[in-house]
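Repro:
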Amino acid sequence: MFFKRQNGNYQDDCYSKTKITNLPITNKIINGNNVWNQLDCNIANLDNKDYLRLPDIKDVKVFILANFNFDDFTYTLVTIKNDKIITKQDIGFAKDIDEPNTISEITEFEIDQDYVFVINTKSKSGEDLKIKNTERFKIDENGLIVIIK
């Protein structure tokens, strides 16, 4: 046989080969070397191939996909349940407004041991970036984001 049959479980196969990164996920980990794994497939129609897969929440698969495009980086949270995308949300990115290559605002995330995401948005204030907003959320067993007050 010259052609290999494509089976319907291509995505399952893709997910099953992904390496799980344990919590917590800190800035040091996010910005570190050798933490981002390379995908063999496409998730959530994103071209990004760099990923962190977090521990599953019941039968929800949790990925953070990274797009490293110089200063214009993006981190996208994707949750998948029963092979369907439930959540696709940017949780880290930089904004440059005035001059090219000048960051005016940056949004960063960390995830603690209890699977609480902390999203900090920092704005440029003089030479420093100061936190202007902090949000916390969890992912429920359906793969949805639940804001923590």
